[in-house]
Amino acid sequence: MKEVAKKIDVIAEERIKFGLQAVVMEDRQRGDDEWRQTTSVVTEPKVYGRDRDREQVFEFLLSHAVDSEELSVYSIVGVGGQGKTTLAQVVFNDERVDTHFNLKIWVCVSEDFSMMKVLQSIIESAVGKSPDLSSLESMQKEVQKILQNKRYLLVLDDVWIEDQEKWNQFKYFLQRGNGTKGASILVTTRLDIVASIMGTYPAHHLLGLSDDAIWYLFKQKAFETNREERAELVAIGKELVRKCVGSPLAAKVLGSLLRFKTEEHQWLSVKESKFWSLSEDNPIMSVLRLSYFNLKLSLRLCFTFCAVFPKDFEMVKEELIHLWLANGFISSVGNLEVEHVGQEVWNELYARSFFQEVKTDKKGEVTFKMHDLIHDLAQSITGEECMAFDDKSLTNLTGRVHHISCSFINLYKPFNYNTIPFKKAESLRTFLEFDVRFLNSTLPSIPSLRALCTCSSQPSTLKSLTHLRYLEILNSRIKTLPESVCRLQNLQILKLVCCPDLSSLPKKLTQLQDLRHLVIKHCNSLDSMPSKISKLTCLKTLSTFIVGLKARFGLAELHDLQLGGKLHIRGLENVSSEWDAKEANLIGKKELNCLYLSWGSHANSQGIDTDVERVLEALEPHTGLKGFGIEGYVGIHFPHWMRNASILEGLVDITFYNCNNCQRLPPLGKLPCLTTLYVFGMRDLKYIDDDIYESTSEKAFISLKNLTLLGLPNLERMLKAEGVEMLPQLSYFNISNVPKLALSSLPSIELLDVGQKNHRYHSNKGVDLFPERIVCSMHNLKFLIIVNFHELKVLPDDLHFLSVLKELHISRCYELKSFSMHALQGLISLRVLTIHKCHELRSLSEGMGDLASLERLVIEDCPQLVLPMETAGYYRA
After folding, report:
1. How far apart are CA 74 and CA 91, in angstroms?
2. Which residues share a beta bridge with 594?
3. What CATH number corresponds to the domain at position 130?
4. Domain of 303: which CATH number?
5. pLDDT tens column, 586-631
6. Coiled-coil regions in this chain (predicted)?
């Protein structure tokens, strides 16, 4: 109690010292969050006051560096919060960069310049996935392969390296990568010494924004859209923004703080705060501290906890809320569940500009980051209590540390913890492992833990963690979850993610009476659930439920559970009747966002099953779903509720997988929110939507952006109705084994992946014919992938319509012998041409000489090919 009293006294002294008044969080309308490591994506709606800076960077990239034989390096230097990353993002996403460079790579470096991590990030940025490579040499070879013969732009964001030798080694390696003339590196850093070490040109020093630009950023936050700009508040505000010294971050944070203050005396209180006179703080940090100390105490705890994550770490909103819950930072208020309180806290911190780069994926998962200055603020306040380590620095823990994370420098190198430092950390509450694959080490015993995220395959110490409330096991080779987990009576969150060998859960798992969230993802070997899951009456999330043959494993176990989030029900072939299905009570689960229903593979072998249609009819969900999928359904007809507009109209993502007996889909074309549609394995389907359209002015699939059609041998058209405009926003189209499909013009498509990828349909005559009539209508197509057309002998002339095509990739077309005379003549924008495993290919089109923009030609495993003279100088494997 004495310690508690001391802390209260300290808080009271802080309040008096800084002239602060008590703040009450204002009520706000609660609603769905619709907002979306630094990334290359520009998340600001509009960037102000940087036109001149942007053009100066372009002058370097497009003029000074273009003819340089040496790898050119240009640095953007400025204090924290000045907008360096935002400027780099604007440049990175400009069309002029797309035109000039044929490869763009974004790497967030942060304070640790590790060669392994930077190389890994280069590979991830270039190919879109993490490399399965364990040595520095293998990483280097892969990066050299990626950069070879390419004019690339590499952005290294937030660099702190002051080691000249380390930088020289990295730069020398890149120069040996054989990038073409004009390859460039753009660096952002706070330090002049970094710019002098790295740069081959004088640095661009980013100064503060003008008063007008800063005022605009401030008032966008302070007054919002509909709030009156009262004269007395404007006058105070214009005095305040001068204290931001041109920093866009400070302007946004200060404006966000004043958004919640409506009275003149409240604005004056901020203006006259003693924070502005603190000599040890720079003006930007003064703004950030002022905003922090205006938070309620509970919000301060939630904010400073974020220092446990490394800088530039991409956090997941739901996971952060769960960690807050596990550490007791949030609790239920009245009828408001603790998770909803967590949502309110997160929304409050976001509204006050403590979080940025918010993204929402198609299934509703929200990720975000903290600006590095905001992270510095959290770290300065929490001190040793919250720390982010790497595996080399995790050696000096003290009794003051409460929350730590550990990132692994070498993802695949065997690692064993030194248990001695952990013995000093007697009050450790949170331990999180990041950036690791299938760790085999044994965890140290830390009895005080409340939250643990681990990749260990040997969680033998779990039995001693009696206070544990949050347990996440990910990227682990664990085969069975130990029975000792069932003795963790305080456990509220259990997550099992990417554990491919996990085959069973403990039988006594239902003893965890406080369990609120059971998340199981990408654990494909798991084939059963513990019996009587209904005993977990506190469950709010059950991401996967596997139906068993016996009653205590049946759908009735879901009846009374008030589930939200995502629910994937597997094993529906074990449901014997519609009455059993109705017991799931899906219609009563109003908080569910995504529902996926799966019948096992052996269900298809039983032929048409009339009962399965009644089962699906009984699985009617509530209205308001965002995502829906169905797999392995063997009925002929979809249920009536799938033609109910009130159930379907909010859907964003829909999947139909292996519903082979169905001849018709529900009416999908009129769904206003549908952005992603995946249809696979429906042999008798003729139309994606056979609904009636009353007039030609009515459009179909107005929001659809991503469309995948696979294994639909009899599909003829998207719509049965003719003359209806459709797919105005479609940008990604993946089509395979759909030989009869006829489409009208699709000018918005940018990426087409077309091929014969499933050998199951090879016996169908005509399935290997290349659908050139589809391709020639795509006048905005930039990327074309042609795979596995085994009867394609000549690449058709129709390709010459694709005047903006940048990349053409042809693979495993084993009978392809030649390109037609005019196939390549119109491809004036083509930069990359790859041909792989076309064993009969003997010649390319004479139009190769017309490929004025071609920068890279890659030919692999084409033993018969004789290249024309004009390809001399290009790369051939």
Report:
1. 13
2. 566, 627
3. 3.40.50.300
4. 1.10.10.10
5. 999 999 999 999 998 765 444 445 489 999 999 999 998 999 999 9
6. none
* 437 falls within a domain: no
Q: Which of 666, 597, 579, 595 is nearest to 634 (CA)?
A: 597
Q: How far apart are CA 324 and CA 320, in angstroms?
A: 6
Residue 196: how many CB atoms within 10 A of its CB? 14
Structure token pair of residue 756: 């014969």
3 state DSSP class of 156:
strand
Q: Do 434 and 391 contact (CB within 8 A), yes or no?
A: no
Domain identity same for 259 and 384: no
- Count Cβ atoms within 10 A of the Cβ of residue 472 and give its class: 0-12 exposed, 13-18 middle, 19 or more buried: buried
pLDDT band for position 185 (cuts 50, 70, 90): very high
Residue 386 structure tokens: 């919250």
> Following CA atoms 600, 603, 609, 613 in sequence, which dihedral angle do they give, to the nearest 10 degrees?
10
d(CA 403, CA 305): 8
Q: Is the pLDDT of residue 19 over 50?
A: no
From the list 500, 492, 537, 536, the residue with the least C-alpha distance to 520 is 500
Three-state secondary structure call for residue 765: coil
Range ranked top by mean pLDDT from 410-419, 433-442, 687-696: 687-696
Same domain, 243 and 342: no
Q: How many domains does the chain have?
A: 3
Residues 314 and 374 in one domain: yes
DSSP secondary structure string for all residues of 672-741 = SS--EEEEE--TT--EEE----S-TT--BSSS--EEEEES-TT--EEESSSS--B-TT--EEEEES-TT-
56, part of any domain: yes
Residue 158 domain boundaries: 51-205
Start-to-end CA span in the chain (Å):
73
Q: Count CB atoms within 10 A of the CB of residue 242.
A: 12
Q: Please report, as a single letter, which amino acid is at residue 610.
A: T
What's the DSSP call for residue 60? I
According to DSSP, residue 435 is labeled S
**183 and 238, same domain (yes or no):** no
Its pTM surpasses 0.90: no
Rounded Cα distance between 741 and 743, Å, is 7
Contact 330, 324 (CB under 8 A): yes
Structure tokens at 414: 């065997």
pLDDT band at residue 427 under the 50/70/90 scheme: confident
Residues 189 and 240 both lie in one domain: no
Q: Model confidence over 739-770: pLDDT tens digits?
A: 888 877 788 999 999 887 554 444 344 445 56
Record the tokens describing residue 690, joined without a space.
């056979």
Q: Is residue 12 part of a domain?
A: no
Q: Which residues contact 478 (CB under 8 A, 6 or more apart)?
A: 456, 457, 459, 499, 501, 502
What confidence category does residue 125 fall into, taking pLDDT thresholds of 50, 70 and 90?
Answer: confident
Please give the sequence-ordered ranges of beta strands (E in DSSP) within 450-563, or none if there are none: 451-454, 470-474, 493-497, 517-521, 541-542, 544-546
523-572 per-position pLDDT tens digit: 999 989 999 999 999 999 999 999 987 777 899 999 999 999 999 999 99
Cα distance between residue 73 and residue 704, in whole Å: 41
